[in-house]
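--- STAGE predict ---
source: upstream dedup step, 1 unique chain passed
mode: sequence only
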Amino acid sequence: MKKFTYFVTKNKSFTLFITVLLSRIFGAPFLFLIPGKGFFTGAVTNVCCIIIELFLILFYKSIPKLLSLTILLTELTVFCVIQAAATGIVCGMDYCVISCIPALFLFSSEKKHPVALKAYIYPFFLCAFTYITYIKLAKISPSQLNLPAHRYYIICSEVFFTFFCLFTLLYGSLITDSEFRRLAKKREWFLKETDYIVKHDTLTGLMNRRRSHQIFNALSKAKKTDNIDYAIAIFDIDNFKKINDTWGHDAGDFILKSFTKSVWDQIKEPAKVGRWGGEEFIIIFPEIDEETVYKLENIRLKAIQTPIEYNGQDIQVTATFGIASSRKYDSPEAVLAQADAMLLIGKQNGKNRIVVSQDF
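--- STAGE serialize ---
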């Protein structure tokens, strides 16, 4: 069942062609059985339509979809006009022709098609509909309508054209609805992907500075309304320029990704890790306690204890951390500036350590 559904969804026009062809083949013998020159003309026209539909099915993949649909609907419209002209009886053909206009729109709604093409097709359908309506409104004698052959023809035609109208519009609507649902899911995925790209660093996958500032605003609000203190740590990789000069910039990028991942893997929500710029990164602790600094030191020690392997070579990487809290500062930017000052002290005093603000 799933395979059938997938095939029908992926081969919309093909399914329509098969259905119309089968219904024509089914009705062909009945048309030949009805006596009268006019009905014989309709039967021959029906055979020609079967040939055209077989052609559309055989060359389904090589003919553009909109062109094949246009050929099908045009062929159906011509069949209706010939039938009406030959027999003088409409039998639902007007509804069939008028349904071709929304049907063509429904089946072509998933792509942008030339407006000029539709501008030529729609007037053709409208002219055919006008002609058939004229025949429908023409006076036909009751004795002619009461002929058994005519009654038989009217019943068969009404069934065929009603089925075709309903199937075409229903199937086209379902396919269009399916396409709109697919586009809606694609749009939702695209928005999520765009939102992720806007808020995250492309190299490391960590949140970027833009996202960090959004969190800063939330921290500032929580501090003012609920008096919740927070902490911000900033760290960078020691001697990173030397790594780039020795191993190359590809190695530098690999070190950044690997080291920050080892830090990120140890961070638990609601704490956040972000790239501040270059080889500098920040860790945001929305809530702090007496264990915060010790947790950060454990994270640092675990991150530096295992060398990073690059192209078969072990590279020992260390980092210096500075951390400050909001207990005596009014804004996250001030806290970050204090943490950055602690980072500078750590760099000046041997690196590979964590320096805590005295105000922490």
